[in-house]
Amino acid sequence: MKKPVILCVDDEPMLLVSLKQQLKHQFGNDYQIETAEDGKEALEIIEDLLEEGIDLPVVISDQLMQGMKGDELLTQIHALVPKTLKILLTGQAEADAIGKAVNSANLYRYIAKPWEPTDLNLTVMEAIRRYFQEKELTQFYASLEKKVTDRTQELQQKNQFLSIAVHDLKNPLSAIRGYAEMIQSDLDDMPKAEILEVVDRIVLSSRQMFELISSLLEVNEIESGKMNLSLEVMDIVHILQWLNDHYHERAKAKHIDLQFHSQAEQYYVMANENTTRQVFDNLISNAVKYSPYDKCVCVRICQDKNVVRCEIQDEGPGLSDEDQEKLFGQFSRLTPKPTGGEHSTGLGLFIVKKLLDSMQGNVWCESTLGKGTTFIVELPVAKE
Ligand SMILES: Nc1ncnc2c1ncn2[C@@H]1O[C@H](COP(=O)(O)OP(=O)(O)O)[C@@H](O)[C@H]1O
Ligand SMILES: [Mg+2]
Are 214 and 249 part of one and the same domain? Predict the structure, then answer.
């Protein structure tokens, strides 16, 4: 970091030299003393300092100079660097110039020529102190303002999260209530089969509520940073094989051909077993949920250098670029809708992403609209 600069402007070279000597003696350890012989040169120096981001706490300028006068120069400097403190060196009676500089350049002090060395030193020292105090204060306010903005945004997000969650819980709950009231008022007139059907719907709605509440709790846990996943060496082929068997029936009901290919019989990764299961459960369930009937869903595993890569490929509707941008956000129910009346919360992929982040894993999607979607997950290979 370069030293802050004290700039002296005077068109009398002798005076400039002695001013520089004096300031160097007093402030030379911590400050660079720069000089200019006229206003134009002074402004050029300041532009350079601004470009390099070097502090300019103090400018000392003579009033009576060839070309640009001191008060005019300080006015221009004020427009460039308002925080810099400006000191004017004046000859005899130049009250007029002083008045102008005070008004338009926010003049800090004027010192009469010939100056008293101690007077000048004290004035410059005080100016420097003020400059840095003001700078610190400005930075402090800026950081305070940022904190307030961040907190406000956080609260707004929490608020939005809560209102969506409440809304999503209200739907199945009012359904449950409606069905229960139906039985309550019509029990005597309802055939047993119809009652059973209504009860089935009650069970389904309460399952949906339960699923949503579990997801909400999980999101909350993730957000509050309480996730402490223990990582262990585990075989990912085993988990994916298990999930494939698990989803076989559901896929068959939609005539979906669920395939599984692994290049090796085992792939050992560093991960948390339950969490990994949950990640792939979400991805495979999505592939089955959003695929039309009579399509194919294919799960593949292979190794690429230090990662094991798993792909879940479907021949579903695919995702537009716009949808892909929102894919891993909260409550992002996008254009593709479940094809077999399944339930959708829009939290699954958000959780998938967060869970993989906390296992040093990675997930992304490659999709062509109308052709299908492939989700790719990478997990670190377990070291021998
Ligand atoms: N394989 C997929 N094919 C097409 N769209 C998908 C696929 N997976 C997810 N989506 C879209 O992304 C949205 C978010 O998915 P997700 O977070 O798992 O929530 P949910 O499945 O509960 O709706 C879904 O609503 C759907 O529109
Ligand atoms: Mg899902």
Answer: no
Pairwise CA distance, residues 68 & 276, whole Å: 73
Q: Would you call 324 exposed, middle or buried from its count of C-beta atoms within 10 A (0-12, 13-18, 19+)? A: middle
The amino acid occupying position 378 is: E
Q: Do 206 and 266 reside in the same domain of the chain?
A: no
Among the listed residues 174, 173, 207, 168, the one whose alpha carbon sits nearest the alpha carbon of residue 345: 168
Contact 295, 315 (CB under 8 A): yes
Q: Is the residue at 9 inside a domain?
A: yes
Domain match, 209 and 236 both: no
Closest CA to ligand 1's atom 13: 333
Instruction: Provide the pLDDT for residue 92.
Output: 66
Q: Quick one: pLDDT at residue 223?
A: 80
Which residue intervals of the chain are DSSP H helices? Answer: 13-27, 39-52, 70-80, 95-105, 117-186, 192-223, 236-253, 273-290, 321-326, 348-357
Domain count, the chain: 3
**Comparison of pLDDT for 266 and 91, the residue scoring more:** 266
Lookup result for tokens 């020292």: 125
Q: Which of 286, 314, 325, 328 to mutate to test the pocket of ligand 1 (most atoms within 8 A of CB)?
A: 286
Domain around 202: 148-223
